[in-house]
C-alpha cells in the first residue's frame, strides 16, 4: 500500500496536495467542484485583523506562463472569518491551515491569540510577505530582523499546540538566511515561495497595468525559482519541513518540488485555469511516485539531494 | 471538453457553436463561459470569458452553446482560428443571469459591440413572458454591430447607432435612449457592453427613473470566485459599499448599485478601505 | 523624421536595440543572418581574464516561457578576445559594447586596464553577477560593498573615456540600493536585469537537470521582473540611463521596457528562438513608437512614470 | 515558414515532409533543421532540432525536406500532431555534414532508433561515389526501427537488432558490429543515435582501427552557435581539449576526437578548465 501521508511540524495530513493561500476563496467556491476532504488541506486566504477592501482594480495581468496579482489582502477580518468561514470548513470535514497576515508585529501577536483556542485548525501559515506599516512599508519577510519579530510574536502567543509555517518571499538576497532566522524564532515549518515582485505596463495606456503598479508574479513562469528556493533551504535546513508552491500545474511539477525538498505542495494559479487542478495534480503525483518505485511520499522528499551514484 | 461544431465570421466577429451536452440546459441569458486558450503548451494560463449568446438543450442529441467572439488579443484570436471538430476546454454556465420580471413589462435591451450577443436569448425569454422588447445596438462602425436576422425578428423595434455612421443613426446608443425610453414607456433596461457605455446608460436610467440591469466586464483570472481579481464596488442593501466579485456576484448586476468609474481607486467609504 | 537615436552615459547609438551579452556568440554567427550595423550595438559575451571552459553539460533546460542556462562564462580570455573578436567586429563597422566579468576586484581592474586603450569600443558593460572567489563565491552584485568595489576598480582603471554600464542581478532584496551604490562608485549607466536564479529537477533522473545544479532563468517568463526592476530604478534614479533586458521578444515588449525607463534594450533568449529577432524587434518598436505619436525614442523613455492625467 | 505536405505515422515515429523551396538544395546528409514548436502563444521558447532524413531539390516546384520524429515530450508531440497544410517556422540546413570520401571505400552506417533517418540520404551519396554501403540499425523494439523500403534497397546489406527481439537479431548494434566490420572489411563507420550508443561504437571503431564519424545529439538552445549550451569536449589537432559547439562544429564529428562520457563534468586538462 502506497503511503501518501505527510506532516509539517506536528501536523499530519492524509496527502500532500493543498490549496495555496488566496487561491481557493473561502473553500465554498471549490466545494462545488469536488469534496474538500480530498485535499491534504485547505489553506485559507491570508486573514488580517480588520476587514480590508483590498487594492483598487485592475488587480491582475496575465504574463507569459504566469500572472500578476495585487489583491491587497481583501478580506472580512479575523472575527467574521472565524465566525463564518472556519466553522463552514470545519463542518465539511476539511483539514484547515489558516493563513494570517499583519501590518505590524502586534497584529501578528493579536491574530495568534485569537486563533490559539480555535478548534479544528491543523496549522498556521504566517504570511510575512506584507508591508510593515511601522517600517516604511518594508515587507517583513525581506529583512531577517522583521521576519524574526513577526514569527516570534506568533510563537509567543499561539501556545504550544499549533504548528507555525512561516511563508517566505523569494525576493531576497538570501532566502536561506531568512529561513534560518524564522526557524530560530520558532517556525516549525516553512512555506516557499510567495509570489515574485513584478510589473506589467499596458502599452496602450502606457501606464502600469495594475492599479497598485507592482504585483506578485505566480504560475509556471516562477516554478524554477520555487524549485531553487526549496532546494537551497532543504540543503541548509534538512530537518525543517517545507510546504512548497510556485507554478505547480501537474503531478510532474508537484513531484519536482518534492524532489527538491517539499513535504507538501500548495496549488495556486493552476486552479484559476482549471477548478479541479488540485485533484488532478494529487492523482498524477501519486501515479508518478508509484511509477518511480516509491512506497511512500516521505521517501521522495528531497530525493534530488542524494549523494550516491554519479552526479 | 466541448467540440466546435461551427465557427463563422460575421462582420468583425466570429460566431462559434460548441457541442456541450447536458450543460446547455442550465445556461440562462447573462451567464458566461470560460474557455482555456492557446492549446496544450500555451503560455496563456488563464481562461477567457465569453457571454453566452444562445444555448439549445437538445436532450439526448446533446446541447449546443453559442458565443460571439471579437478577435482582440492572443487568446480570442487563437479561439477564432480553431476549426470545426477541435475540442476546447470550456466551463459553463458561470455567473449571474439577467433577472426576469414576472409581469409583462416593457423592456429595452441595449448592447454595445459584441455585448448584443446575450441580449437575443434574453429577448426571447422576455417575449415568452409577454414583455414588449425594444432593442438598441451601438458600435463604432457597421462591422461591429452584431444583429443576426432571427435575432432582429424577436424584438418589437431595433435601433442601431454607429459612431462613424456606416449604418443606422450616427452617434452613440445614449443619444437615442432618452427618446426611446419615453416613447415606449420603458420599465426596465438590460444592457451589456463596454463599462463606459454601461455607466452612461446607468446615468440615463437613474435620471429617468428606470430600473437598469447590466452585465459588467472586468478582467477575470478564475471566473469561479476564488481569486478576487474581478471585483467592483457595489453598494449593498445595507448601504455598505463592498468590493464584490463580478464573476459570481455578477456579471449581471443592478446598475444603480454600482459605484461607477472607480477603476484605479477604491471608492471612499468602501467596507475595509483604509 | 522619427529619431531613433539613444545614449548610455556618453555613448551614442543609432538605435536602441542591442544584443544581450552571452546571446550573440562572437557576432560572426549572427552576421550570417543580417548586417551587424543594423544593431544599436553588439554586446559581447562577458569576457574574463583567462580562457575558461565554462561549466559541464547539461547547461540548459527549457522552462515555461523561459529557459535556464549555466554556461559558466566559457570564453577565450581577454587577450585572444581583443586580438580576434574585437578586431573582426570593428571591421564589420558594428557598434561594440564589451562585457567583462571577474572573479576578484583585481580581475576587474586588470580587465579595465586592458580595455582602456582599445579603439572602436562604445561602452563597457560590467557584469558583476559572477561569484567572487575571494568572498566564498558570493556574487558581487548581491552585496552593496562588493558591487561597489568591482565598479570602483573599473572606474579607476578605465580612464575618462569609456562609459561604464553596471549590470545588476534582480536576485537581491533591494535592487535600488545596489543601483545607488554602483552609481556612486562611478557607473554611468545600468544594465537591468541579468538572469534570475532558478533550478529544474529532471523527474526522470530525479536530480537537478543542469550539471551546475542552479542556472539563470531568462526569456519572457522574467519580463515582469525586468519591468519592475527598471521601473523601480528609474523612479529612484531618473537621470541614470538604463539598458533594459529580460524576456523581450517583440517590439511591444521592448516598448514596455522603454516606458518603464530603459533607454536601450538588449535581446537575449529571443535570438535562440529566432536568429533575426533583434531586427524584427527593432522594426516593430519603431512602428509602435510612431503609432503612439512619439517623434523620438527619447520621449518614450520612462513615459509610464508621468504624473499627469488620471492614474 | 515551411508547409507540411505530408505527415504519416511509421511505427513509433512520424515521417513529416515540408515544402521548403530553394533551401532543399543546400541540405547535406548530417545537417539538421530547427523548428519552432507549440504555435503562436507557445510556452516553449526554444526550437527543436531534427536530423534531415532526405531533401529533394525540385527546382521551380520548390524543394522538399523530410524528417522523422519520435513523439517524446511536449514539443515533438505537438509537431507530430500538426496536419498537412499547417506552416511551421523552420530553419535549415544547420550544422556539419558527414564527410564524403573521394575514394570508393567500404562504409558501415549504424543507426539507433530515429538515428537511422539521416543515414539513408548518406547511403545514396556514398553509393553514387562507388562506395559499398552496409547498414546496421538497432532499437529497443521493432516499432522503433525506422527502415523504409526504398532505404533498405539502397544498401548492400542491412542488419537489424532489437533488444526485445521483436525483429532481427536480439541484442544491441554493438553486438554485431565487430563481425560485420571484419567480414566486410569496413573502412569507415558513420553513426547516428543516442550518445551511449555512439560511445560504444566509437570504442569498437578505435579497437579495430576504423575511422568513425558520428552525429551527436546534445541539448541545443539556439542551433546557430550563439548560446554555448550544446558543447562537448573535443580534442583538436593540436592535442588541446576544447568545449566545442555541437550545433556548428557538429553534429557530425570525428568519433575519435570526442572525450566520451563527460556529461556533468569537464574533462581534466580541458582548455580553460580550472
Ligand atoms: C463576463 C465577460 C464576458 C465577456 N464576453 C465576451 C464576449 O461575448 N465576446 C468577446 O469577444 N469577448 C468577451 N469578453 C472578453 C474576453 O473574455 C477576453 O478578455 C477578450 O477576448 C480579450 O482576450 P484576449 O486573450 O484576446 O486579449 P489579451 O489582451 O491578450 O488578454 C490578456 C488578459 O486580459 C484580459 N482582458 C483583455 N481584454 C478584456 C476585456 N475586454 N474584458 C475582460 N478581460 C479582458 C483577458 O481576459 C486576459 O486575461 C468577456 C469578458 C468577460 C469578463
Ligand atoms: C542534432 C539533433 C538532431 C536530432 N534529430 C532528431 C530526429 O531526427 N528525430 C527526433 O525525433 N528527434 C531528434 N532530436 C531530438 C529533438 O530535437 C527533441 O529534443 C526531442 O524531440 C524532444 O523534444 P520535446 O519537446 O518532445 O521534449 P522535451 O523533453 O519537452 O524537451 C525539452 C527540452 O529538452 C531538449 N531535449 C529533450 N530530449 C532531447 C534529446 N534527446 N536531444 C537533445 N535535446 C533534447 C529539447 O530540445 C528541449 O529543449 C535531435 C536533436 C538534436 C540536437
Ligand atoms: C490571486 C492570488 C492571491 C494570493 N493571495 C495570497 C494570500 O492571501 N496570502 C499568501 O500567503 N499568498 C497569496 N498568494 C500567493 C500564493 O499562495 C502562492 O504562494 C503563489 O501564487 C505561488 O503559487 P502558484 O504559482 O501555484 O500560484 C496569492 C496568489 C494569487 C495568484
Ligand atoms: C545562454 C545565456 C548566456 C548568457 N551569458 C551572459 C554573459 O556572459 N554575461 C552577462 O552579463 N549576461 C549573460 N546572460 C544574460 C543575458 O545577457 C540577459 O541579461 C538575460 O538573459 C535576460 O535577457 P533575455 O530574457 O532577453 O535573455 C546570458 C543569458 C543566456 C540565456
Ligand atoms: S475571476 Fe476570480 S474571483 Fe472573479
Ligand atoms: S545550440 Fe546554441 S551554441 Fe549550439
Task: Lay out the secondary structure.
The complex is a heterotetramer, with two copies of chain A (311 residues) and two copies of chain B (274 residues).
Chain A: E1 6-8, E2 11-13, E3 17-19, H1 28-31, E4 42-43, E5 60-63, E6 66-69, H2 78-92, E7 96-101, H3 105-115, E8 121-127, E9 131-132, E10 138-139, H4 144-158, E11 164-167, H5 175-184, E12 189-192, E13 196-199, E14 201-202, E15 207-208, E16 214-218, H6 223-236, E17 241-245, H7 251-260, E18 264-267, H8 270-273, H9 277-291, H10 297-300
Parallel strand pairs in A: 3-18, 4-7, 7-8, 8-11, 11-12, 12-17, 17-18
Antiparallel strand pairs in A: 1-2, 5-6, 6-16, 9-10, 13-16, 14-15
Chain B: E1 2-10, E2 13-19, E3 32-35, E4 48-56, E5 64-69, H1 74-80, E6 87-88, E7 90-94, E8 106-112, H2 117-128, E9 132-139, H3 149-153, E10 157-162, E11 169-170, H4 173-183, E12 188-192, H5 195-208, E13 211-215, E14 231-235, E15 241-245, E16 252-254
Parallel strand pairs in B: 8-9, 8-12, 9-10, 10-11, 12-13
Antiparallel strand pairs in B: 1-2, 1-6, 2-5, 3-4, 3-7, 4-5, 13-16, 14-15
Keywords (chains A, C): Cytoplasm, Flavoprotein, FMN, Oxidoreductase, Pyrimidine biosynthesis
Pathway (chains A, C): Pyrimidine metabolism; UMP biosynthesis via de novo pathway
Family (chains A, C): Belongs to the dihydroorotate dehydrogenase family. Type 1 subfamily.
Distinctive features:
heterotetramer; A: 311 residues; eight-stranded parallel sheet; 18 strands; globular; B: alpha/beta; Elongation Factor Tu (Ef-tu), domain 3; Rossmann fold; 3 domains; 5 helices; 16 strands; binds flavin-adenine dinucleotide; binds flavin mononucleotide; binds FE2/S2 (inorganic) cluster; flavoprotein (chains A, C); cytoplasm (chains A, C); pyrimidine biosynthesis (chains A, C); dihydroorotate dehydrogenase activity (chains A, C); Dihydroorotate_DH_CS (chains A, C)
Amino acid at each position: 500500500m502506497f503511503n501518501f501521508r505527510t506532516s509539517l511540524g506536528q501536523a499530519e495530513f492524509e496527502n500532500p496536495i493543498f490549496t495555496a493561500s488566496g487561491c481557493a476563496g473561502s473553500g465554498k467556491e471549490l466545494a462545488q467542484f469536488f469534496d474538500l476532504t480530498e485535499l491534504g488541506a485547505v489553506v485559507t486566504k491570508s486573514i488580517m485583523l480588520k476587514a480590508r477592501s483590498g487594492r483598487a482594480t485592475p488587480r491582475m495581468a496575465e504574463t507569459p506562463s504566469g500572472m500578476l496579482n495585487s489583491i491587497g489582502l481583501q478580506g472580512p477580518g479575523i472575527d467574521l472569518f472565524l465566525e463564518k468561514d472556519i466553522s463552514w470548513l470545519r463542518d465539511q470535514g476539511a483539514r484547515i491551515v489558516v493563513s494570517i497576515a499583519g501590518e505590524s508585529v502586534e497584529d501578528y501577536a493579536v491574530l495568534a491569540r485569537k486563533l490559539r483556542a480555535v478548534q479544528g485548525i491543523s496549522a498556521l501559515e504566517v504570511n510575512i510577505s506584507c508591508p510593515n506599516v511601522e517600517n516604511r512599508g518594508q515587507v517583513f519577510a525581506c529583512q531577517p530582523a522583521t521576519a524574526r519579530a513577526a514569527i516570534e510574536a506568533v510563537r509567543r502567543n499561539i501556545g504550544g499546540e499549533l504548528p507555525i509555517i512561516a511563508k517566505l518571499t523569494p525576493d531576497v538576497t538570501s532566502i536561506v538566511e531568512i529561513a534560518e532566522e524564522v526557524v530560530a524564532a520558532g517556525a516549525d515549518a516553512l512555506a516557499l515561495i510567495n509570489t515574485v515582485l513584478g510589473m506589467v505596463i499596458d502599452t496602450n495606456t502606457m501606464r502600469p497595468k495594475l492599479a497598485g503598479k507592482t504585483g506578485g508574479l505566480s504560475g509556471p513562469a516562477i516554478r524554477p525559482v520555487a524549485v531553487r528556493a526549496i532546494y537551497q533551504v532543504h540543503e541548509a535546513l534538512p530537518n525543517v519541513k517545507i510546504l512548497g508552491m510556485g507554478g505547480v500545474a501537474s503531478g510532474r511539477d508537484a513531484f519536482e518540488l518534492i524532489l527538491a525538498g517539499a513535504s507538501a505542495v500548495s496549488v495556486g494559479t493552476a486552479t484559476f485555469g482549471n477548478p479541479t487542478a488540485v485533484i488532478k495534480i494529487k492523482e498524477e503525483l501519486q501515479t508518478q511516485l508509484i511509477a518511480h518505485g516509491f512506497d511512500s511520499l516521505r521517501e521522495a522528499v528531497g530525493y534530488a539531494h542524494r549523494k550516491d551514484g554519479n552526479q | 471538453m466541448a467540440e466546435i461544431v461551427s465557427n463563422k465570421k460575421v462582420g468583425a466577429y466570429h460566431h462559434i457553436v460548441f457541442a456541450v451536452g447536458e450543460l446547455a440546459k442550465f445556461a440562462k441569458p447573462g451567464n458566461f463561459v470560460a474557455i482555456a486558450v492557446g492549446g496544450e503548451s500555451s503560455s496563456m494560463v488563464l481562461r477567457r470569458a465569453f457571454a453566452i449568446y444562445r444555448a439549445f438543450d437538445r436532450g439526448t442529441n446533446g446541447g449546443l452553446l453559442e458565443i460571439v467572439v471579437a478577435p482582440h488579443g492572443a487568446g480570442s484570436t487563437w479561439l477564432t482560428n480553431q476549426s470545426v471538430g477541435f475540442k476546447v476546454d470550456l466551463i459553463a454556465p458561470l455567473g449571474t443571469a439577467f433577472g426576469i420580471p414576472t409581469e409583462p413589462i416593457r423592456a429595452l435591451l441595449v448592447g454595445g459591440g459584441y455585448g448584443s450577443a446575450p441580449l437575443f436569448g434574453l429577448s426571447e425569454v422576455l417575449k415568452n413572458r409577454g414583455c414588449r422588447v425594444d432593442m438598441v445596438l451601438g458600435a463604432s462602425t457597421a462591422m461591429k454591430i452584431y444583429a443576426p436576422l432571427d435575432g432582429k425578428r424577436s424584438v418589437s423595434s431595433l435601433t442601431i447607432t454607429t459612431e462613424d455612421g456606416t449604418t443606422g443613426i450616427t452617434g452613440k446608443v445614449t443619444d437615442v435612449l432618452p427618446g426611446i425610453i419615453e416613447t415606449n414607456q420603458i420599465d426596465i433596461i438590460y444592457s451589456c457592453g463596454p463599462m463606459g457605455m454601461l455607466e452612461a446608460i446607468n446615468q440615463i436610467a437613474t435620471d429617468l427613473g428606470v430600473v437598469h440591469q447590466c452585465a459588467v466586464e472586468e478582467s477575470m483570472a478564475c471566473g469561479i470566485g476564488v481569486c478576487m481579481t474581478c471585483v467592483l464596488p457595489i453598494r449593498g442593501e445595507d448601504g455598505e459599499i463592498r468590493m464584490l466579485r463580478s464573476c459570481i456576484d455578477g456579471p449581471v448586476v443592478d446598475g444603480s448599485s454600482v459605484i461607477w468609474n472607480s477603476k484605479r481607486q477604491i471608492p471612499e467609504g468602501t467596507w475595509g478601505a483604509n
